[in-house]
What does this fold into?
Amino acid sequence: MKFEFSLEPVLKVRKHEEKVEKQKLAEKLNRKKDLNELKERLQKKLESHINDTDSNKFINLHDLQRQQQYINDLHEKVKQVNDSLEKIKTAVEHQRDKLADVHKKRHIMEKVKEDERELFLEEMSKQQRKVMDEVATQTFSK
It folds into this structure.
């Protein structure tokens, strides 16, 4: 006789849910990493343009205004990336919580499966002992 877990389909669904949630978390973490890299690149550009700003370099006021506008645009992009980073950090934390919940549910199902398996093995052992006792009784009574 073979052990069959009565809730095997539920366990499979729980495992699939956990796999999906892990993938979603990985996507969000990759997005966060990309945003951090973009932020660093923008900050380096910004620093280089601010450091390179030299009044002797600009021939006229128009060039100076263009440079200042470019620096302002970089500041605005950095601000937008920071806002996006805050949102993605929140999303990552939310996704981690969801993954933890799904993991708990899967773990509970595995524990139930293990308990059910132990009960099955005990029952099989009882049946074996019963058969062996019956055989011994019949052999002894002959």
Notes: The mean pLDDT is 90.
